[in-house]
Write a structure and sequence with these properties.
By secondary structure, the protein is an alpha+beta fold. The protein has helices at 23-39, 44-49, 121-124, 126-134, and strands at 5-8, 56-63, 72-82, 86-95, 101-110. Helix content is 26%, strand content 31%.
Length: 138
């Protein structure tokens, strides 16, 4: 299993109430995907260097407990759907101090070329395909 993504809440990410602004969770999901790919041995920069893009088709988040400036959190990523054209990812954000789940979310993506035409990566990019297929939750 790959290491969860971990970091602390930055001050600029908080709102007037002193909690992490809701919009930042979607950014954290992206950071977690980038971390996952690095941990899996396929940095996102290598994927893009091959002319592959992974646009977001949808993203959602359910907020359960607030995170505050300086709180350290972890994010577990699970690949829940993958067929070589589309990708479904779920995220669980937890407080490192308490272990409590602070947020849950999911996003869907597709694979395209630089002209945004859909790609089937299984035969043309088998190493990239394996990163996702080998880490899909069954």
């Amino acid at each position: 299993m790959l290491r969860p993504y971990e970091r602390a809440v930055y001050y600029y990410e908080t709102d007037k109430m002193g909690i992490m602004h809701h919009s930042n969770y979607i950014r954290i999901f992206e950071e977690t995907r980038i971390h996952f790919l690095s941990e899996a041995g396929m940095p996102f920069s290598e994927i893009e260097a091959q002319g592959i893009l992974m646009p977001v088709l949808s993203a959602e988040c359910r907020y359960l407990r607030p995170l505050r400036f300086g709180d350290t959190f972890t994010v577990e990523l699970r690949i829940t759907d993958f067929n070589g054209v589309r990708l479904g990812v779920e995220y669980t954000v937890c407080s490192k101090a308490t272990g409590e789940v602070c947020a849950e979310g999911k996003s869907t993506h597709c694979f395209t070329d630089e002209g945004l035409r859909p790609l089937r990566i299984k035969s043309r990019y088998p190493a990239i395909y394996r990163v996702f297929a080998d880490n899909m939750e069954h």
